[in-house]
Each structure stands twice: as C-alpha cells, then as structure tokens.
Amino acid sequence: MKVCVVGTGYVGLTTGVSLAFLGHEVTCIDLDQSKVDMLRAGHTPIYEPGMDELLAEAAPNLHFTTSYTEGVPGADVVFVAVQTPSSSDGSPDLRYLRAAAESVAQNLAHTFTVVVNKSTVPIGSGNWVDAILRESFAQREDRPENTEFAVASNPEFLREGNAIHDTLFPDRIVIGSDNPRSLEVLNQLYRPIINQTFTAPSFSPRPEDIGAVPLVSTDLASAELIKYAANAFLALKISYANEIGQLAGKVGADITEVARGIGLDQRIGSRFLQAGVGWGGSCFGKDTAALITTAAEYNYEMPIVRAARDVNTRQRAIAVERLQDELRILKGRKIGLLGIAFKPNTDDLRDSPSLDIANLLIARGARVRLHDPIAANRFRAEQPELAPFVSDTLDGVFEDADAVVLVTEWAQYLELDWSKFVGLMRTPILLDGRHVLDNDRMNRLGYRYLSMAG
Ligand code: UGA
C-alpha cells in the first residue's frame, strides 16, 4: 500500500520505517530539512536501538521529504504523527496537528485516503481533525475529482528503547473510526503484523510465544480513550508499587519481594511494578495531565489519576530526603547521579527524575555531578545552566562523593566493577533509585547501600 507519514519523531519514524520494512511504499515528511537530510543519508535523528539497521533494510521502500506534495497525493493512508506538547494548563498544544491537517487537506488526491491520528491527542480530536480536513479541502480551488477521505485513530503503544520490537510484535493493534472503509484499509495495512507473516529482522527476533496479534477495531472516541487509559493505568501501577514500597520500608518488608509476590497473580501481572524514583518521559506525565484536563471539561474528577501523579512527584523528593536523613546536611556535599535519561536505552530527557533530583539537591546547596552513557551531550545542549555539573567519567562522579544515586538503570551501571569506585568516595553511601543492585553484595564491597524504601 502507499503510505505517508507526517512527522519523523519517535512515533512517526518508527511507524514509517516499520511499514516500509513490511513492504509498504512509504514517504515520510518532516518540515525540518536537516532531519530529512540526515535520514536520507541513512542516519536516525533519535537514539533508538536497531533503528539504523531497520532504516537500512527498509531503504528501498522509503522516501524522505519536506514536501507534502511528494507524499500525500495517492496515499492510501496518511499518518499524522506530529508533536503535541503540553501547554501550561496541562492540555496538549494542538497547533502542529492543525497545521499538519491543513497541509494534508491541501494535497489529498486519491479515491480513498485514511488520515490517521498517530499523535496522542485529546479525546474528540478525531472529529476536530476531520472538521479541519473538510474545511481546508473545501477551500481548495484545485480540488480533485473522486477524492474521498476519512479520519481514524491508531494509538501507539511503543516504549522508547524498545520501539521496533513493540511495533513489530505488539500485544494488540487498536484502530478506531466511525467510517467502516477506513477500518478495512487499516486492517489490510497491518495484516503482516496481525498474522506475523514477515521475516523478523535479525536484531529484533520474533518472540517465541507470539501468535496472531489481536486487533481491536472500534469507534474513534474509544480508540482515543484506550491510549490514555492504558498509559494512565501503567503510570498508576508504578505509583502503586512506589506507595506500597514506602510502607514496605516502614514495616521492614522488601518491596522487590512484595512486587514479585503480587505480580505473579495473573490478574495483576508482574510488569510495571518496579519501584524506585518513579516514572518520567514524555508520555505518562503528559497523558495523565491531559486525562485530568479532559475530565474537567465534563466537570468530572479523576482522583486515582491525580494520586498517581502526586505519588510520582513525591518519589523524587523522597530520594533527596533519603540522602538528607543519612548525611544530615546536604549543603556542600558532593552527590553523584548515575543516569540522566528518563530510562535506559534512550537519550530522551523529558521529565527525567534525574533532572528534578539534581535541582532539588542544588536548591539545598549540594554539589551535584551527573553522568549518562548516552544522554550527556544532549543534556548539556538542552540544560546549559546544568552543563557544568556533567561528568564524562565515572571517576568524576565517585571521586570525593558523599553519596552516589543510581537514577537510571543503564546496563553499563549494572555491570560496573563497583569494587573499583568505592575507595574513591568520601563516604560510600549508595542510594539505589531503581532497586536493581544487590544489597548484600554492595555492603560487602564496602558501600552503605540504601534503597528508596528505607
Ligand atoms: C510509555 C508506554 O509504556 C508505551 O506503551 C506508550 O506507547 C508510550 O509511553 C507513549 O505513550 O508513547 P515510554 O514512556 O517510552 O512508554 O517508557 P516506559 O518503558 O513505559 O517507561 C516510562 C517510565 O516508567 C520510565 O521512567 C521508567 O523508568 C518508569 N518505570 C517503568 C518504572 O519506574 N517502573 C516500572 O516498573 C516500569
């Protein structure tokens, strides 16, 4: 099929490259010429394991351009995957989406095109995009004959760092439209994934237990709500583990054991119960805020979602309190933070717990040193005022440190020769912000191991 993808961020690029890999003919549009140049040269502007390889494999079916006229006319499906950043009141800023929809409408020319909202948009945006498309299309003087289109929602459930795996081997595919023909087109588009008929890339093997991928084919509003309900549920699952984790610390229980014990109940499930400094990233914070804002438009409160957010914010403060309880005085202390990215295998810094923890420590007079194997340079560029606190070496983090906090569980940190660094510290306090290090081993090596739970 002929596919066009507008926006080459995480979602757009992964969608475009994956569909091209599956054999569809894909044109990716981005207004940023430098991004397009980079992609044409075979390099991805984002850090995502396997993406460069997939880009190379899919290259014969892929075309990158800044021009809508090269991608939209004749497309069976147009994905709109532009950014929807949070406005100051928590609602998503839809300016880019409006502009993209207008440009798509100016270029539609096909017997039937499905325009898919791939950006995470507020519930009801499908109708809004539909209205923009119809209005802009009606204003065209060069309106082509026999051109029909309809809007659909196809939410994304990929995790950064696992984007290719999550796209090719998803738990489910959700498509929503009030137009049955759109659902049929999308069903066709995703057949190779639904039936798992493609040859898996060598760097992302097919999971052994995967069968046919369930397809949830529903109406527009339901598909839009599924995305928010899924992310908010995952966010509150983590916050629940963190809330129980604090109580575990008080009563002398081990949160890792408790999470395992409850997670083995199949009704609960073991994933997303990892307690620690809490969630970050571009999705959970933004989507929980947007859900609350949407509900407020209906005079409806969402206390559970609100609590998930509050608990998450509190975890970051608790990390600092744990250090203060131990060191008594934070002023003048040197504290090393291992990890700046919001999670491993990404250089994404949005809403990173590390950033909040660093700022809280700095506000209390501590001297902070930050390290990250991948995100350090991006951090320097995005947070220039904190750039002097970044260390490129681990020695720079541990040397004379009064405490070190493991904030992001990069493999490099888990595999570290921890025995090498303990001697460099002034006081060997190690706060395991992700509950991933072995308490007994760390104590044996000479650290004073602290977990988030106390
Ligand atoms: C999340 C969802 O997992 C995806 O399904 C969704 O498509 C995506 O948002 C989106 O809306 O675009 P992502 O933010 O990339 O994906 O990353 P996750 O792996 O979900 O991690 C989010 C945060 O939760 C990270 O800071 C991670 O460290 C934290 N986390 C995760 C925990 O603290 N504990 C856990 O048990 C799991």
Summary?
By secondary structure, the chain is α/β, with parallel strands linked by helices. The chain contains 17 helices and 13 strands.
Topology readout:
Layout: E1 2-6, H1 10-21, E2 25-29, H2 33-40, H3 51-58, E3 62-65, E4 77-80, H4 95-107, E5 113-117, H5 125-138, E6 149-153, H6 163-168, E7 173-176, H7 180-189, H8 191-194, E8 215-218, H9 220-251, H10 255-263, H11 284-297, H12 303-327, E9 334-338, H13 353-363, E10 367-371, H14 376-382, H15 394-398, E11 403-406, H16 411-414, E12 429-432, H17 439-444, E13 448-451
Parallel strand pairs: 1-2, 1-4, 2-3, 4-5, 5-6, 7-8, 9-10, 9-11, 11-12, 12-13
Uridine-5'-diphosphate-glucuronic acid binds next to helix 9.
- Morphology: elongated
- Number of distinct beta strands: 13
Q: Distance between termini?
A: 55 Å
Strand order of the largest sheet: 3-2-1-4-5-6
Offer a few descriptive terms.
454 residues, alpha/beta, Rossmann fold, 3 domains, 13 strands, 41% helix
Q: Would you write up a description of this structure?
A:
- The model has no long low-confidence stretch (mean pLDDT 96).
- It contains 17 helices and 13 strands.
- The longest helix has 32 residues, at 220-251.
- With 454 residues, the chain is of the alpha/beta class.
- It has three domains: 2-218, Rossmann fold (3-Layer(aba) Sandwich), CATH 3.40.50; 228-306, N-(1-d-carboxylethyl)-l-norvaline Dehydrogenase, domain 2 (Orthogonal Bundle); 315-451, 3-Layer(aba) Sandwich (Rossmann fold), CATH 3.40.50.720.
- Strand 12 (429-432), helix 17 and strand 13 (448-451) form a beta-alpha-beta unit.
